[in-house]
């Protein structure tokens, strides 16, 4: 039974590869030329269930959709060499990885750097923090200093450190947003991965925060959010894209545009492709 299901999944992914390839060829035009230099990637958390079943098939399907790279959120028991081989075969790049702060401390530092050197990853993003590192203003400042020290070490290896926001960063502690306290006390080497959907779920629109630290927002999770529709995909929510898009294509300093969808009303791979097509349409409209 397991083998049958695995074969079925592989066949489904192969079908998606060819279908996507056909759609991509048909869609070529001026808009695609304008987007050709943009590094648009997929956060693999979007397709996490499929990755656990058939990671090689997912990578092929993602490439066929037109993504240029992926952002990791786990490695599914694969070595860095195995992952790099799969990416190279599909002409994809590693646009980053979500990791824990612990993986960059002590004896873990060298192991983490070597793993991502093999993958070709330049951006290591701490995806979240335990409460004791952000529950007081003093704790946030101390954490920012900790990030600064790690970022300096990573710079010597040709890598950058970033912090990724959730909704909690847009709550106030001692009269100031956690996000502002953190980044105003972190060295400029500490980059920003801004998640537009998470910010809106925390009650703020992204644009004012994207504009605050020009050149530091190197990666953006282009994700929508709706308080009335938990499955809202790209372009279906309340993010003010008319303000966001000029910033992330300009002075914010964004290099990597990462699509992520955490919940979905349709299968994950279809979700990823639908979000990509919607994002492309928004870019072409500018």
Q: What strand order characterises the main sheet?
A: 1-2-3-4-5-8-9-10
Distance between the termini: 50 Å
Helix percent band: 40-55%
What's the total helix number?
11
Look at the structure and give the mean pLDDT.
Answer: 91
**What is the ordering of alpha helices and beta strands?**
HHEHEHEHEHEEEHEHHEHEH
What is the percentage of strand-forming residues?
15-25%
Main sheet: strands, sense, barrel = 8 strands, parallel, barrel
Count of extended strands: 10
Computed CA radius of gyration, to the nearest angstrom: 19 Å
Structural class: alpha/beta
Report low-confidence residues grouped into runs of 5 or more. 1-5, 24-28
Shape: globular
Characterization of the model:
The longest helix is centred in the N-terminal third of the chain and has 25 residues, at 2-26. This protein has 11 helices and 10 strands. It is α/β, with parallel strands linked by helices and 286 residues long. Residues 1-5 and 24-28 have low confidence and may be disordered.
Helix-strand blueprint:
Elements: H1 2-26, H2 30-35, E1 39-43, H3 48-65, E2 69-72, H4 80-89, E3 93-99, H5 108-119, E4 123-126, H6 137-155, E5 160-164, E6 172-173, E7 176-177, H7 178-185, E8 190-195, H8 196-201, H9 207-210, E9 219-222, H10 241-248, E10 256-259, H11 268-285
Parallel strand pairs: 1-2, 1-10, 2-3, 3-4, 4-5, 5-8, 8-9, 9-10
Antiparallel strand pairs: 6-7
Helix pairs in contact: 1-3, 3-11, 4-5, 6-7
């Amino acid at each position: 039974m397991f083998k049958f299901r695995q074969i079925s999944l592989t066949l489904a992914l192969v079908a998606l590869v060819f279908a996507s390839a056909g759609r991509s060829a048909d869609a070529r035009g001026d808009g695609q030329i304008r987007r050709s230099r943009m590094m648009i990637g997929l956060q693999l958390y979007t397709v996490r269930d499929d990755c656990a079943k058939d990671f090689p098939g997912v990578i092929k399907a993602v490439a066929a959709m037109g993504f240029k790279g992926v952002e990791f959120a786990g490695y599914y028991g694969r070595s860095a060499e195995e992952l790099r081989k799969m990416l190279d075969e599909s002409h994809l790049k590693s646009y980053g990885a979500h990791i824990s702060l612990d993986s960059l401390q002590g004896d873990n530092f060298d192991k983490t750097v070597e793993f991502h050197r093999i993958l070709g990853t330049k951006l290591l993003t701490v995806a979240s923090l335990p409460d004791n590192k952000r529950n007081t203003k003093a704790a946030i400042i101390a954490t920012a200093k900790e990030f600064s020290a790690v970022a300096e070490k990573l710079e010597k290896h040709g890598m950058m450190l970033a912090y990724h926001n959730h909704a909690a960063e847009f709550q106030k502690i001692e009269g100031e947003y956690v996000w502002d306290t953190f980044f105003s006390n972190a060295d400029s080497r500490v980059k920003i991965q801004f998640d537009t959907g998470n910010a809106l779920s925390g009650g703020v629109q992204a644009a004012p925060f994207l504009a605050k630290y020009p050149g530091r927002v190197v990666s953006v999770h282009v994700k929508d959010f709706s308080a009335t529709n938990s499955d809202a995909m790209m372009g279906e929510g309340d993010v003010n894209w008319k303000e966001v898009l000029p910033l992330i294509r300009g002075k914010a300093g964004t290099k990597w545009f990462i699509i992520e969808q955490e919940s979905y009303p349709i299968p994950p791979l279809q979700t990823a492709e639908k979000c990509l097509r919607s994002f492309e349409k928004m870019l072409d409209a500018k």
